[in-house]
Design a protein that fits this description.
GO molecular function, one term: endonuclease activity
CATH architecture of the largest domain: 3-Layer(aba) Sandwich
Number of strands: 15
Largest sheet: 4 strands, mixed
Strand order of the largest sheet: 1-2-3-7
Keywords: Endonuclease, Hydrolase, Nuclease, Plasmid
Helix content: 40-55%
Number of helices: 35
Protein name: AlwI family type II restriction endonuclease
Distance between the termini: 67 Å
Pfam families: RE_AlwI
């Protein structure tokens, strides 16, 4: 759950030790570990010596995220100690007293608690905040759905949206998040406010939006309509400054210079008194400059910051340890322009703004650090587009009609009771932990939803619900193709694919692609884009990807285990691309069965259309690909419960280098298919399905 201990604490979706850029990938990894090791009862969620569960979780998290967690000194120390028989025995017997008696035992316990188990708690705390797990780390029903191969039940409006299961579940959970005060008397919904702002404003500044969403606290409810209007009136910073003044217990008198005694009294909270004279000197010289901007007053201010010690003191106090005023300018006019966002270069409310800058140093640093996590979460819902520092609502014309029926009063800021809040945040039967549609969250009736859909049909001049979805999907596909042509043209795509063979390029690949997803997911994404360049036939490129993308068409997480990675549906045939970065040895264990299963089931499901599967990896295991080749002569039975068989199954392996060669030589899908079919047609045979019975019966 999300509860702020005091008015200065801010909204954070992930603790400092639990933050990672591949947000959705992290959710999936952590919940899979909890599901496999804790739901089954193998471990209980507790710290040593009550359980080895939190140690086990951390071990698995490191194993599953080697590219993310590269430094883990305390864990390495623990593992080194566990190589010693006496440590290993005492640890697995959960004998804390015995460990303490061993050489280095106290350090072992300290590093285990602060460096290993605490990180497990931090990593999973995010999942409790969004309702995917309970406080005891048991998965909620919606958490189980998130990692399963099942799909959520969608209402008729949700069926219109061309977003996938992961997008939808994140959207629903985001809308249910409440940020409570410490006494549970008030709460605030940041995602509700975000959507209201985008409902009323077509485009908003990303920095202003996410700074504002993280600045707001349930301790000080605010007029959400005024907040929204500030974006259209271009006075968001004024509203933020107005809001920040609510944190001042006693408002400062404006229009007069503070005397030294008064200044020292006001500016003393948790600050060392030895530096107060520096703050006071800065206050006076800054006020002189703001009152009379000129070369002389600017020189006095600049001279103050030329003193190295004073500069460090002021940056630490007012800039969250960073430079908060830029002096690398040509004159004082440029200084004012460059530092406008500092909020302390105007006479209007100067004393209050200076005070806020002083006391909100840590809070503002936290806002800066944590707002990016909120941005990543909202973008992963698939309905929030963020491009070039501008935020807008995807499928806006559809959402506009929906939001006309939503009463936002009570959804953004509201009051509550401790019992009611506890029921909402802790009860296993709470809607917070259940899979419910957005209608229930927004309190929209079925009748209202039907009216909304009729309004959308009229707005888009479309006569059926099915056509609305088709219209949105087609629009998405057009935009996605434009995105590929602009951001990933042929030469750039080949250049990126060339980089995957060297895993030291992982960081650079993420930077070039602009995604923080796992590199295997990005590889899958780039192979799908490569096929778009190879293919001359028209197909729905966007829908061919079985991975979660955000509203900016960038990958978030890879496909689940129930279907192929990429499925290209042409009018007369179907192609499946199975993609992996696993090395040759890992392919034997991790790819042999899933690829065969996916190819078999898709061939049966798409019959009578011809189906081909291309397996693409950086390197290939010869035994695995030869077995797949041999399977072409054997009928394969469906694994979905059907009694049907797939004949002449085609699984053709390619390396990344070979895909790049095809692109370089401008070889299209027709030539590729012709060559594959010519080879695989030779493997057709009258296979005797009763061969085993014939042998048994001969005895």
């Amino acid at each position: 759950m999300l509860k702020l201990g005091d008015k200065n604490q801010i909204l954070n979706f992930a603790n400092t030790n639990g933050r990672r850029n591949d947000l959705i990938n992290a959710y999936t990894i952590y919940m899979n570990i909890l599901n496999e090791s804790f739901e089954s009862g193998i471990y209980i969620w507790d710290r040593f010596p009550n359980s080895l569960g939190q140690f086990h979780f951390y071990s698995r998290a490191l194993e599953e995220s080697k590219d993310v967690f590269q430094q883990h000194g305390p864990y390495d120390y623990i593992c080194k100690k566990l190589e010693l028989p006496e440590y290993r025995e005492a640890f697995h017997n959960m004998d804390k007293e015995k460990i303490i008696q061993l050489e280095g035992g106290n350090d072992f316990i300290k590093k285990l608690d602060n460096g290993v188990e605490d990180r497990s708690r931090h990593y999973t705390s995010t999942l409790t905040k969004i309702g995917f797990i309970h406080e005891d780390r048991q998965l909620s029903s919606v958490g189980k759905l998130f990692i399963s191969e099942s799909d959520p039940v969608r209402n008729d409006f949700e069926k219109l949206l061309p977003i996938d299961k992961i997008n939808l579940l994140l959207l629903r959970q985001g809308l249910k998040i409440r940020v409570y005060t410490d006494d549970y008397q008030k709460y605030y919904s940041p995602i509700m406010l975000l959507l209201y702002i985008l409902f009323k404003n077509e485009k908003v500044n990303a920095k202003d939006l996410f700074t504002l969403l993280n600045t707001i606290t349930p301790y000080f409810p605010f007029d959400y309509k005024e907040i929204s209007d500030s974006f259209s009136k271009d006075n968001v910073r004024d509203v933020i400054q107005k809001y920040e003044k609510l944190f001042i217990a006693e408002p400062l008198v404006e229009g007069k210079r503070l005397e030294k005694e008064e200044f020292y009294k006001k500016f003393s909270n948790n600050k060392t008194s030895k530096d107060q004279h520096i703050y006071f000197d800065f206050y006076n010289k800054l006020l002189d400059f703001v009152t009379d901007p000129a070369d002389s007053t600017y020189s006095q201010l600049e001279e103050l910051f030329e003193d190295k010690y004073k500069k460090n003191v002021l940056n630490n106090t007012f800039g969250q340890k960073k430079k908060f005023l830029e002096f690398n300018v040509s004159d004082y006019n440029e200084f004012i322009d460059v530092n406008y966002d500092s909020n302390i270069l105007s006479l209007d409310s100067f004393n209050s703004n200076f005070y806020i800058k002083f006391f909100n140093s840590k809070r503002n640093k936290d806002i800066h650090d944590y707002k990016d996590m909120l941005k990543r979460f909202t973008r992963a819902t698939g309905i929030i587009e963020i491009n070039n520092g501008v935020v807008n609502l995807a499928y806006r014309d559809v959402w506009i009609e929906y939001f006309k029926y939503v009463d936002f009063d009570g959804l953004i800021f509201n009051t509550d009771t401790k019992n009611s809040a506890a029921e909402y945040e802790y009860s296993v039967d709470s809607v917070f932990y259940k899979d419910v549609t957005i209608n229930k969250i927004f309190d929209i009736t079925d009748e209202q939803m039907n009216d909304i859909i009729e309004s959308i049909k009229n707005k888009l001049s479309i006569d059926s619900v099915e056509s609305i979805k088709k219209n949105l999907v087609n629009r998405n596909d057009i935009l996605f193709k434009e995105f590929i042509n602009s951001e990933f043209p042929l030469k750039k795509t080949m250049s990126i694919l060339n980089m995957f063979s060297d895993r030291s390029n992982d960081k650079e690949i993420k930077k070039i692609v602009g995604s923080e997803a796992g590199v295997p997911t990005i590889y899958e994404y780039m192979i799908g884009i490569a096929w778009y360049h190879i293919s001359n036939k028209e197909y729905d490129v966007f829908s061919s990807f079985n991975l979660t993308m955000n509203a900016n068409f960038l990958p978030e997480t890879h496909a689940g285990g129930g279907a192929g990675d990429i499925v290209v549906k042409y009018n007369d045939n179907t192609l499946m691309l199975e993609v992996t970065l696993m090395n040759k040895n890992a392919q034997k264990r991790g790819e042999w069965e899933p690829v065969l299963r996916h190819a078999t089931n898709l061939t049966i499901d798409e019959h009578p259309k011809k189906v081909r599967t291309l397996f693409i990896a950086d390197e290939l295991d010869e035994n695995t690909i030869n077995i797949w080749r041999a399977v072409a002569s054997v009928p394969m039975k469906s694994t979905t419960g059907k009694k049907d068989y797939a004949e002449n199954l085609i699984i053709m392996p390619f390396t990344t280098a070979e895909i790049i060669t095809l692109m370089n030589r401008n070889i299209d899908e027709n030539k590729i298919f012709t060559s594959i079919d010519s080879s695989y047609s030779q493997l057709k045979s009258n296979f005797n399905s009763n061969w085993r019975n014939d042998i048994i019966n001969s005895f």
